[in-house]
Each structure stands twice: as structure tokens, then as C-alpha cells.
Specification:
- The structure is a single chain.
- By secondary structure, the chain is of the alpha/beta class.
- It is built from seven helices and seven strands.
- It has one domain (9-191): Rossmann fold.
- It is 32% helix and 20% strand.
- Strands 3-2-1-4-5-7-6 form a seven-stranded mixed sheet, sandwiched between helices.
- Helix 1 links the parallel strand 1 (9-13) and strand 2 (35-40).
- It binds S-adenosylmethionine.
- S-adenosylmethionine is lined by residues 14-16, 19-20, 39-45, 85-86, 106-108, 113.
């Protein structure tokens, strides 16, 4: 959906220095009632905290760099910063009954964190809203369970009845559409449980 000029409630999970935050503030916050919420620990993800990277990314000044960058934006007064882990902050937003039109998921890249962020953000995304996952195919770690891909794929399978997807170079864009696949009750009770030897859940 075209976003510019519309009243939008935007959520960014993971802002780092604010490159994407400042772009959104400068380009998507024209409407007087638009708002933007960002969540970040400002401690970096696993990839930033690794000893060899902490210096490279200058982690000790991350939050002050973020705050200096967003302060230059015309619409900074529409920005709410939640300095917290995404799992806690997202649940707090749910408690507030928050809803969003555009969500950018780019915090922890550890699959189980991404899965949590995806599901809770999805619950707060309005129908016709858009959720973007950054680093869809990022493989910073050797093990699948530390990379976002498995989490995003698992989420997409679960949300299949109400999604339209588009993959760009490094991102997965997901639009929430009205549910178009109603659940069909299984007519045969004998099929309620899968035969273990054929369908082990962990295979
Ligand atoms: C890849 S960077 C975000 C980049 C930013 N979206 C951009 O495009 O410029 C990831 C950010 O997520 C934050 N982060 C990592 N794990 C987090 C968690 N569990 N909760 C909140 N923030 C987290 C890090 O501090 C880091 O600033």
C-alpha cells in the first residue's frame, strides 16, 4: 500500500544508530497524527557484542549516536523510544492495545527471538498493514537456529491464511490480508493424530 502522506502508526523493532528510523521519520511521518515507536536495548545483537565487533561498531556510544541522529529529524516529536528487550517491550505494547500499520522487524537475529517478535508484532498489525523482516536470508552463524530464516519461514507458514509476500534483495515484505483460508474440520477422527513413525515432529 502507498504509505506516504497517510496517517500511520509505525513500529520499528531494532533501530541501531537510527538509519532506518530517520528515513521513516523524514519520509512517512507527514500526517499530523502519525506516530513512530522504536524498541532497542542499544546493546547490540549477538553479532555486535562479539569481542572483535564491539569496538568496530563502537557499541558504548550507540544510544547517544541514535539520539543525536533522530534529533535532527523534523518529526522527532512523533517518536517514542522504548529502551528495552523486544520481548518485554512488545508485550507492554500489547497491554496498551497498540496497533500499527507498518512494522519493521530488525532486532535480535536469533531465530527464537525473531519468531517471538514476528508473532507479537503480527497480533498488533492492522489488516492491510505491512510487516518487513530485514536480513531474511542472513547467515551470520553456522547453525540455523541462530539465523532469522527458519523463524521467518515458520512464521510465514503459520500466518499463510492472511498474508501476501514479496521478497526483495535482503528483506521479506508481508502484507496482512483478510483471512481467506478458513479452517476445515478433519472429517475422520482416526486422522486426528499423526502416526509417530511417519511424522516425527523433529524430523
Ligand atoms: C541490525 S540492528 C538494526 C538496524 C536498523 N534497523 C537499521 O536498519 O539501521 C539490530 C538492533 O537491534 C537491537 N537488538 C538486538 N537484540 C535485541 C533485543 N532482543 N531487543 C531489543 N533490541 C535488540 C540491537 O541493539 C541493534 O541496535
Amino acid at each position: 500500500m502507498p504509505l506516504r502522506g497517510k496517517k500511520l502508526h509505525v513500529l520499528e523493532v531494532g533501530s541501531f544508530e537510527g538509519a532506518s528510523t530517520t528515513w521513516i521519520l523524514d519520509n512517512l511521518m507527514d500526517h499530523a497524527e502519525s506516530t513512530m515507536t522504536v524498541i532497542d536495548t542499544f546493546e547490540g545483537g549477538m553479532e555486535h557484542q562479539a569481542a572483535e565487533n564491539a569496538q568496530k561498531y563502537n557499541m558504548s556510544t550507540l544510544e547517544s549516536r541514535f539520539r543525536a541522529n533522530v534529533a535532527k529529524c523534523e518529526h522527532v516529536n512523533k517518536l517514542r523510544v522504548m529502551k528495552a528487550r523486544s520481548d518485554n517491550a512488545l508485550l507492554a505494547l500489547r497491554q496498551e492495545s497498540a496497533h500499527f500499520d507498518f512494522v519493521y522487524v530488525d532486532a535480535s537475529h536469533v531465530a527464537i527471538d525473531v519468531l517471538h517478535d514476528a508473532v507479537v508484532c503480527w497480533r498488533m498489525l492492522n489488516v492491510h498493514g505491512v510487516m518487513v523482516f530485514d536480513d531474511f536470508r542472513w547467515k551470520g552463524y553456522m547453525e540455523d537456529c541462530y539465523n532469522p530464516h527458519v523463524a521467518i519461514l515458520g512464521f510465514l507458514r503459520c500466518a499463510a491464511p492472511e498474508i501476501e509476500t514479496r521478497e526483495t534483495e535482503s528483506q521479506m515484505w508481508v502484507t496482512k490480508v483478510p483471512n481467506r483460508i478458513p479452517a476445515t474440520p478433519n472429517p475422520d477422527p482416526a486422522l486426528y493424530y499423526w502416526e509417530k513413525d511417519k511424522n516425527s515432529a523433529l524430523e
